[in-house]
Amino acid sequence: MGDTGAEHWDAEYRRTGRVVFPRRRQALYSRPVLLSWVVVIVPTIGTVNDLDTRGGTWYYIRAVCAVILLAGAVTTTVHILRGAPALIVDTTGIHLGTRFVPWSAVTTIGTPVSSFFSDRLPIHLTDEDGDEDELEIPRDNVDDLPSLAAWLNHLHTERQVS
User: Fold this and answer.
1) pLDDT for 78
2) What is the pLDDT of residue 128?
3) If you write DSSP's letter for every residue of the chain in order, what string do you get?
4) Start and end of every Low molecular weight protein antigen 6 PH domain (predicted)?
5) Are strands 99-102 and 113-114 parallel, antiparallel or unpaired?
6) Do β-strands 113-114 and 132-138 pair in parallel, antiparallel, or remain unpaired?
7) What is the pTM of this model?
8) Residue 51: what pLDDT?
9) Under 8 Å CB-to-CB from 117, ≥6 apart: which residues?
10) Rounded Cα distance, 66 and 36, in Å
């Protein structure tokens, strides 16, 4: 659903009351994922080269760090392959993974922000106490963040009017 346009999202929203954006497979090629694998591979090469001269504290520290980094890279890759976390927009609000934001807490939908590591859409929030917060929707779920921003603004305006 994240590779289609706002017309499809709106039609699905009107038909079922919700739109589900699972994490796209293209997120596997994002900078953070590729960087996590590079960070695993480079130290592991040096550790494997020292297998014949085992011994010393530094060897064991490098081996433990390589295992921890490998676990992190595998976990990130598995989450992407499973499509988690999913972005769900429904009549009650916005769900991103386990985080839920009701429409009443949304103050503004920001403009997409691009950085070296990721592109994201900030959604500015205010809770019951008046504290400000922000929910960031990554490009991992939706390819066209400007269209998503426009569509969410449209839904937010509708919710305010009704």
Assistant:
1) 79
2) 75
3) -TTS-HHHHHHHHHHHSEEEEPPPGGGGGSHHHHHHHHHHHHHHHHHHHTGGG--SHHHHHHHHHHHHHHHHHHHHHHHHHHT-SPEEEESSEEEETTEEEEGGGEEEE---EE-SS-EEEEEEEE-TT--EEEEEEETTT-S-HHHHHHHHHHHHHHHHH-
4) 96-150
5) unpaired
6) unpaired
7) 0.71
8) 61
9) 31, 32, 35
10) 11
User: Contact at 8 Å (CB) between 137 and 87?
Assistant: yes
Q: What six digits make up the tokens of 152?
A: 């969410």
- Dist. CA 40–CA 121, nearest whole Å: 29
Phi, psi of 141 (to 5 degrees): -95, -35
Instruction: Please tell me the predicted confidence (pLDDT) of residue 161.
Output: 73
pLDDT tens track for 9-44 = 999 999 999 999 988 766 666 666 677 777 777 777
| Parts of the chain with a pLDDT under 50 | none
Cα dihedral sign, 80-85-91-93: negative
CA-atom Rg of the chain in angstroms: 20
Judged by phi (left if over 0) then psi (alpha if -120 to 50, else beta), residue 8 lies in alpha
pLDDT given for residue 147 in this prediction: 93
